Every structure is written in C-alpha cells, then in structure tokens.
Amino acid sequence: MNYLLVEGILGRLMVAYATFMGAPLLVALAWQEGSVLGLLISVIVILILGVIMVSHGQKDGRMGLREGFVIVAGAWILTSLAGALPFALTGAVPTYLDGLFETVSGLTTTGASVIDNVEILPQSILLWRGMTHWLGGMGIIVLFIVFLPNITGAVHLFNAEVPGPISERVLPRIRDNALKLWQIYLGLTLAQIILLVLAGMNWFDAINHSFATMATGGFSTKNTSIMYYDSLGLELIIIAFMMIAGGNFGLYYQAWRSGIKKILKDVEFQFYILIIVVATLMIALSLWWTMERGGGNSLRHALFQVVSIMTTTGFASDDFNQWPSVSKFILLCLMFIGGSAGSTAGGIKVSRIILLFKLAWAELKRAIHPKAVIDVRFAKRTVDPSILNTVAVFFFLFLSIFAFATLLITATGLEPFDAMSAVAATLGNVGPGFGVIGPTTTYSTINAFGESVLILCMLLGRLELFTLLVLIQPEFWRSRKGW
Fold this sequence. Notes:
It is built from 20 helices and 4 strands. Helix 1 runs antiparallel to helix 5, helix 5 packs parallel to helix 9 and helix 17 packs across helix 18. Strands 1-2 form a two-stranded parallel ribbon. It has a two-stranded antiparallel sheet with strand order 3-4. With 483 residues, it is mainly α.
C-alpha cells in the first residue's frame, strides 16, 4: 500500500473541496449574512489540512487496486467530516453530528434532513447544502479524475465509485470518460435551471432544485418540498429531469454519438420506464378508488411520486404518508429498486433486478434439466458468471445490512415499519420515508445512535457496499503482489 500517494491525492482533493466551499462564502459576503465567519473558518481549516497532506504526501505515482479503494473511501469520509463544519460553525444545526448527518445525506444524494425549518437558514448555507448534492451526484472522485494528472491507474478510482454492476466506460481513457460524464451532467443542470426560471421559480431556488434533481438528491429550499409551489408546470419539468438523472449517463453519451435509438433499444432503460408506468398506474388507481380523488389529480401526484422515489430523488408533491397502504407499499418497493446503473440514483439498480430475475429463471430451468448448459443473457450478450455471482452477493449483503440496521433503529424506539422505511430510505439514498420520517417531517426525532447508524447506511448505499466493506478485511491491508 502506497500510503504517501493516498495522502497526496486526498490532500489535493481537500484543497479542491475548500475551493468549492468558497462559492457559498462569497454568497455570505455578498448578502452580509451571519454565516460568514463559520464558512471562512471552515474554508481555512480544510485548506490548511489539504496543504499539509499534499506537502507530506506523494504527488504522482502508480495506483493499485487497494490504493483506489482507500482513496475513494477516504475521500467520502473526509469530505463528509469537513463538509459538516459550515453547518456546525454557523449554528444551522444543534450538534456536529447533525451537521455530519446533513452533509453525508447531501453528498450521498440521500436528501434526508435533520433541519426542521430550512427556510430560516442563510442562503449561503442553503447553497452549500445544495452543492453537496451536486458534487456527490456524479461523484466527487469522478470529478477529481478530470483534474488529476500524472497518476497511473485512475481506473481503480472510477470503478470503485461509479454505481452499477458493470462499470461501462464510454471512452477508452478514464480521464476523457470522466470529463464527458461531467459535461453531460453540467449541461443538463444548466438546462433545468433555465427551464425552472422560465416556469416561474426564482434563480436561487432554481439552482438549488436543479442541483438536487440532477443528483437525485431531494434537498429543497422549502419545508414542504415541491408541494410549496403547487405548480403542474414545475412538476413536469422536475419529473422529466428526474427521469433523465435516473438513467445511464454513459448511455446518453452513446446516444449523442449514435442517435436516440441507442437509448430506446437499451434493455435496462426499457425496464426502467416499464416499472415507472406500471407503478404510476397502480398508485393512481389506488388514489382514485380509495381517496376518491379526481383521475387527473391522482395521475399527477402518482407520476411525480413514483419517479421521485424510483430515482431516489425524494422530492414530494403530496403527503404520500397519508396515501393508502398499497400505494405506500409500492413506493417502499421502488426504494429498493432504484434507478439505472451509471445514473446518479441509489438503490439496488434496475440492471441488477433484471439479472436476478434471469438468474432465478435459469436456476428453475436447470432444476428440470440438470445437464443443460443454460446461459444468462443481458442485452443479447451472455453474462459472465463472475458478474452474476457479484450481483447475487450484493443482493444478499444489501438485504442483510437492511435487516441488521432495521434491528438497530428499532432499538432506538421507532416502530418497526418506521424503522424499516428509515433504513430503506437511507440505504437506498432516497431521503423521506414513512411515519415519523415522512415527506412533511425530518429525521430530527432520531437519537444520536440512530443518526450514526443511518449515516453509515447512506455511505454504504452510495458506495454500493463493497468499497467500504472490503476495508474491514484484514487481508486487504496485507502486502500482496498484483494489487
């Protein structure tokens, strides 16, 4: 393990992180807000830490698999700890742990909040809150790779952070790949900002909600989220961009080069749209039949909420905590599924769900024909058995962590269903759940132990389990050739 290289790269990341934090500091200075001192101290502390790490560490070199895992995990931990400083030092939250929860929720694009009244926060803190979403959406490391010269083996960073069962690259060079992904991400964000402003939202709210939408995060500048605006036009714009953000960004680049048919013929995208359509119709029918709402109103809120939960964005256009049990159960299932591989969404991912179904069907066939050679195919290609094994292990670990974390959260005093939804919403990086952590409430009622458990759930969910869990193996830290 080249610890000096790890230290040097993480130090450069902290310097860049302090630079990004300068944006809300400038806002605080421009608006003469009371948050200036807290933000200034945060920037200075992070910058000094970064400079020390850079001066002591190694500036360039060859990166191996182990260094990649440690750098990605270390980057998320360090940015979470450092990003909590503005919340704690400006008094936006009562404790540093609350600030850490808010920052991790932002960076992992979960959107779960412990702040009961966000509308009284300074605009600079709201901007930093929104920026944590946007930086974490496409990935802090993926952005950093763009500005990372003289490092061989950056592919290990990319593979350890980009979500999905298969890290599909759109270009052969990792740096070019990261640049194209961020260009698409930036372009879509700017497009949404403009459309939201044209639809009647002010510039500041448009920027924050676009950051949250494209990152599939869910932080809003309003206590009641999108319900505050009660605007069909704004909802349709946000629905469209949530659906885009929940799709595969690598696929979008391929479609830009080869045509829209590339997207329409993609198996995962087809299944992704199918789930949204079926879930929307089922919930709309439930709302119309049980709550006696009009057909248009039922379809409007069903579509928004299905897309919001499916893409793990977590915005709310209605208080779905008051919806019929069948509708809430469908939303709970969508929390587990999540968006597409290569998207900014959380959850298990649609491609994994497809592979699990195909694997189960193949095993049923094999039970009838033990000697038959039955391949699992995806997008007209035979899937490597090692990938199927990884998908199966991921599913097992995901459910095991979900069950164990639910047990721990239940021990804090929450009702079992509330505890289940809290863990599902954080492990799947969704944000709001049901019961005491519904769309009109926050996580502020959960005690310090519960917050700590959910912080770990958010990090595990965003880094897709393996990147963090591999670090607890003693073998990982032993010297071994070929790593």
